Amino acid sequence: MACRALGIDSGISKSTVSRICADIDEAVEEFLTRPLTHTWFPYVYLDATYVDVRRGGGVHNKGGRVISQAVVVATGVSAQGRREILGMAVGDSESTDFWTEFLRNLRERGLKVSTDTDPLGVALVISDAHSGIKAATTAILPGAGWQRCRVHFARNVTQKLGSRHSKPINALISAVFAQTDPQALVAQYKQVTTALRSSCPDVADMLTAAETDLTAFTGMPVEHWQKIWSNNPIERLNREIKRRADVVQVFPDRASVTRLIGAVLAEQHEEWQYGERRYLSEISMRKLAHTLYDPDDGVHDSADAVGVPDVQFMIGA
């Protein structure tokens, strides 16, 4: 099926291949351009992977150069606590302009931004420490916070110190995230940073510079912390994309990338909608809505908090 979707030789007639490709392209286009106005998405995960694509060939794009292309993907957790594929795009690199255009397209399709008067929009964007993502988030999703993936940060520490020396340091840093109270977590973070100042000043500097971004998740309900402090959920999706792409090895053109990976994403989206339990519970999503409306008053357990509208219709069944 992958061969047919890509339009490469598969032992069937060219007209049949063309018809199959056209049908897949139509379905993928409809999926990737569908409106996002049916709910709001407090959490958005962004990541990219790379695939090899042939460019500049002759007939049937044979020959030419093989170049690496970025495939960027956005997933979200809806107000109902379910995961959805929000979009994908293929480009030459993960530049700020490319990420900005990608997020702008999501907004144009209805991805709701958070404002002071209506905070029920994108509350937190989770990604690795890519400057293009952070700049694009600031420009296109101005009401959203940015959570730097703690797993990627640990990898950065390993790159700095080497595998053997980084293990005890990363274990010490991990102890910070064992806290279940925002104030206690921040206090522990500062203690670890201070403790590393003399023995590992470079890592202490990294922690100091990253504190706001690594602890952005603490403004959300504690029930959500483990699922929003890293980019692991979308990285697992990207591993599946890579597994499918490795079968192809070199895509004949960009259209074939969108065809195959778009179909994979549509399949995963459907599985999330109908084949798995909620990613985040309805009760915790209700807490999140109240927290966003009144962050200075902590997390409410009741839907009757003063100044907070009834959010039942926003949570759904």
From TrEMBL:
Any single Pfam family the record assigns to this protein? Transposase_mut
Any single GO BP term? DNA transposition
Q: Where is the signal peptide?
A: none
Q: Does the keyword Coiled coil apply?
A: no
**InterPro entries according to UniProt:** Transposase_mutator (IPR001207)
The UniProt keyword set, sorted, is: DNA recombination, DNA-binding, Transposable element, Transposition
A Gene Ontology molecular-function term?
Answer: transposase activity
Question: NCBIfam families annotated for this entry?
Answer: transpos_IS256
Q: Which family does it belong to?
A: Belongs to the transposase mutator family.
Q: What does this protein do?
A: Required for the transposition of the insertion element.
Q: What is this protein called?
A: Mutator family transposase
